[in-house]
Each structure stands twice: as C-alpha cells, then as structure tokens.
C-alpha cells in the first residue's frame, strides 16, 4: 500500500480490501451472487436483506447486469434492513433506491419483494406489520436471513441502529421504529437479534471519511451502544467487511 497499511492485516475479522469502490462492488457482487446460488440450490430459496444509502448501489447494478443471468431470481426473497419512514416514491426511500438499481431490472417475482410499509400513521404499527411479514416467511424454515448487506455510517451506525438508540437494547423484536439524528428522522430498522443471526453479513464501506470509524469498529473493544456496528466486529465467521483502500487506511 502507498504508505497505508490496510486495517485488514490487524484484526481477526474477515476484511477484504479493494483498490477502489468499483473493484469492491465487483468482488462483493461476485461473492453475493455465488452465495445466492448456493443457498437457493441447497435450501430452495435465499433471503437477501438489502441495505440503503449510496454505497450498495453499484453492487445492485452489477447483480442486475453482469451477474443477472447467474442468479435464480425466482428463488430470491428480497427484504430491507431498514427504511426511511417516507413514501416509497420519495427520493430518500431505500425501497425506491433498491427498485431503481436492482429489482426493476431482474425477474424477481413481486410476491418475493417484501418492502417495509411506511403508510401507517404510527411507525410502530409498520414495524409490527413487517414483523408479521417475517413471521410468515420464517414459518417454513430456519429463522435467520441468508444474506444481509449493511453499510456503515461515520458515527458507527448501521441499518438505522444509531448510537445511543433504544433500538440497540431490543432483544426480542426483529423490527422496531427508530429515530435518526438526520432527516428523515423517523425510521424502521431490523434489530441486532435479527441481523446478527444471519448466515452471511456483508458490510460495504468506501471512502476516506469512513477510515476512522472503520478503525474504531474493527480494532477497539468498542461498545455497540456507542458504536452499533461494533456488534458485528468479532470474527464470527459470518461477517465480511468489504473496504476500499481509502476506508481501510490505518493512518489519517
Ligand atoms: C440508510 C442506511 C444506512 C447507510 C449508512 C451508510 O438508510 O441510510 O441503512 O445505514 O448504510 O448510513 O450510507 P452510505 O452508504 O450512503 O455511506
């Protein structure tokens, strides 16, 4: 590395460093597509939990293009890790982003696309509605997601689990309403019990602005209450951290 030793050589987590965001998206998409194929072949279906934000968009585009023909879309069940509590046609909607970047371009049956509804007056009713969706899906099979994609915020949040959030204390419910420190403040999010049980978790993190929080999450004994993504830092075998060169830098 040009004067930057990558964080990956210093931690016991599965860290994969790519030269840039483009290479990261390609390598991660290849692994995700392969896992979808393997799980769909062995279990007959594959639950894929989609992340919001901007980082996953190129990976979604690759799943919808370069890897499209390699994925059994009829056996893919799409879920969301979190949602901004806005209409689905709002430019800030994670549902809208995933539809535009991926789901509108692949033959995933509409019945397999499980959006978090945001049309209840009370977000808690929406969270309970999604919980019912998950209960229905998991009623036949192991109660854990096959693949979860996650991003990382500069404050250590992931999905809509923000530092200090009561949602981090939830140990029973899989979906809860949450409040973000930035607009849109009202959110829905999967909880740590829901996310951490997953068979394959992929964090996608790019850019120099994330290098510090990546170091804090992966190298410190950080408390998930203050740094939620730290809940996934231990080398559990199920978690892969995809970092580009800038996000993996170990010095400022
Ligand atoms: C959201 C995401 C959120 C995101 C991080 C990183 O709804 O915004 O769930 O957790 O993954 O904020 O966002 P970027 O990928 O845009 O940096």
Question: Can you put this structure into words, describing what you see?
Answer:
The protein is built from six helices and nine strands. By secondary structure, the chain is α/β, with parallel strands linked by helices. The strands form two sheets. Strands 1-9-8-5-2-3 form a six-stranded parallel sheet, covered by helices on one side. A three-stranded antiparallel sheet has the order 4-7-6. The longest helix has 23 residues, at 21-43. The mean pLDDT is 94.
Shape: globular
Instruction: Round the mean pLDDT to the nearest integer and report it.
Output: 94
Strands side by side in the biggest sheet = 1-9-8-5-2-3
Biggest beta sheet summary: 6 strands, parallel
Cα-atom Rg, whole angstroms? 17 Å
* Structural class determined from secondary elements: alpha/beta
Strands, total number: 9
Low-pLDDT runs: none
Strand content: 15-25%
Tell me the span between the first and last alpha carbons.
Answer: 14 Å
Ions and ligands? 6-phosphogluconic acid
Order of helices and strands: EHEHEEHHEEEHEHE
């Amino acid at each position: 590395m040009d004067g930057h030793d990558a964080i990956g050589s210093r931690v016991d987590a599965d860290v994969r460093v790519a030269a840039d965001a483009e290479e990261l998206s390609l390598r991660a998409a290849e692994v995700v597509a392969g896992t979808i194929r393997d799980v769909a072949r062995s279990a007959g279906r594959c639950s894929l939990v989609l992340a919001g934000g901007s980082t996953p968009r190129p990976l979604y585009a690759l799943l919808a293009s370069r890897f499209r023909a390699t994925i059994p879309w009829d056996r893919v069940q799409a879920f969301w890790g979190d949602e901004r509590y806005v209409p689905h046609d709002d430019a800030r909607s994670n549902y809208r982003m995933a539809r535009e970047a991926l789901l509108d371009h692949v033959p995933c049956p509409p019945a397999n696309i499980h959006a978090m509804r945001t049309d209840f007056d009370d977000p808690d009713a929406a969270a309970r509605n999604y919980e019912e969706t998950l209960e229905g899906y998991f009623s036949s099979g192991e109660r854990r997601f096959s693949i979860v994609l996650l991003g990382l915020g500069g404050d250590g949040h992931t999905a809509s689990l923000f530092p200090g959030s009561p949602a981090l204390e939830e140990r029973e419910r899989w979906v809860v309403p949450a409040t973000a420190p930035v607009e849109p403040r009202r959110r829905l999010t999967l909880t740590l019990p829901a996310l951490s049980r997953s068979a394959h978790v992929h964090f996608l993190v790019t850019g120099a602005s994330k290098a510090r929080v990546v170091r804090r999450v992966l190298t410190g004994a950080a408390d998930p209450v203050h740094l939620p993504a730290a809940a996934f830092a231990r080398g559990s075998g199920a978690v892969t951290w995809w970092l580009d060169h800038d996000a993996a830098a170990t010095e400022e």
